[in-house]
Amino acid sequence: MTRPTTYVTDLHDMSMNESRFGPLPSVRAAVEQGAAQLHRYPSHTAAELVAALAGHYGVSPAEVLVGPGSAGLTQNLIASLGPERTEVVYPALSFEAYPLMVMNTYCRPVPVPMAGYGLDLDAMAAAITDNTRCVLVCNPNNPTGSVVGRDELTAFLDRVPADVPVFLDEAYREFVTDPDAADGMQLRAGRDNVCVLRTFSKAYGLATLRVGYAIVAAAIAQQARMTNMVYYPGGLAQLAAVAALEPEAEKQMQERCAEFAGVRARFVEDLRAAGLDVPDSQGNFVWLPLGAEAEDFVARCRAAGILLRAHPGLGVRVTVGTDEANQRLLGVVAAG
Predict the structure, then answer these.
(1) Closest by alpha carbon to 246, among 18, 48, 73?
(2) For residue 289, what are the CA distances in angstroms to 81, 137, 177, 307?
(3) Domain 25-245, CATH among 2.130.10.10, 3.40.50.10400, 3.40.190.10, 3.40.640.10
(4) pTM to 2 decimals?
(5) What is the 3 state secondary structure string of 83-144?
(6) Percent of the chain predicted with pLDDT > 70
(7) Does 6 have pLDDT greater than 80?
(8) How far apart are CA 270 and CA 272, in angstroms?
(9) 51 neighbors 66 (Cβ within 8 angstroms)
(10) According to the CATH classification, is domain 12-17+248-335 in 3.40.640.10?
């Protein structure tokens, strides 16, 4: 989906899973100050950001990778593990970029059918072969919003061979309120094959700067650095991410996420009251399992000034937007 470069003020884009909040004031100030250095190249090692992330999570800087969003890092990591094994296992209804990432790294996609709206980890474990390069687990899962529980993911990781990396894509982790949801940073202890990927694009509201990070075993990180392009992320992205990790900014981000959880809950309740079968979501989006009606619903919303992401024949992903955007979408639903 292409969004116009000049934004239409009356168009609500609920297709991109962007934050309903703008950047935090302190982070915006850091970017504005850094703009005076636009003629300078960024640090190719992003040493300050790497150090900040290492301190934030209590890991060695050697275990930290940064790059152009968690998606860019995922493709980089897949490529760095080659070329001997050529299959990548992932959930069939998950982040729409996974198949392209896999094929871009000259691997064969192995999509595994879902168990309802959630991941079928037993089937994913059974799909692993001697030719599996890695496994992708999106948690919370995009687009369905489901989460894998701690015990369930632990049991899955225990079944995965130690030489098969598991990428835990936790781009939406900050929005999770389910106390039983798995936390990759906790589960990677003692498992060198577990790689945790997160981003500043979502909860931190820095999508336009494209900066994400991965916490992985030092050996995997070093291998990835050898295949990574230099000068990523950009200088302003590095400054913004460091500022976002400051204690006061982190506190404000968490407060925003707590407020958002209430908005998400009310939006889901309103959609259900309007007659839609909406599953629980732990992301900043909701899944509408509309089946064959998905594309028609997206077209009706587009006519009403709302952009959505359709999965033809399956459903529609809707970003939880501003109050005005949410009410406009509910109006389309009510109109039938």
Answers:
(1) 48
(2) 35, 21, 22, 17
(3) 3.40.640.10
(4) 0.95
(5) CCCCEEEEECCCCCCHHHHHHHCCCEEEEECCECCECCHHHHHHCCCCCEEEEEEECCCCCC
(6) 96
(7) no
(8) 5
(9) no
(10) no
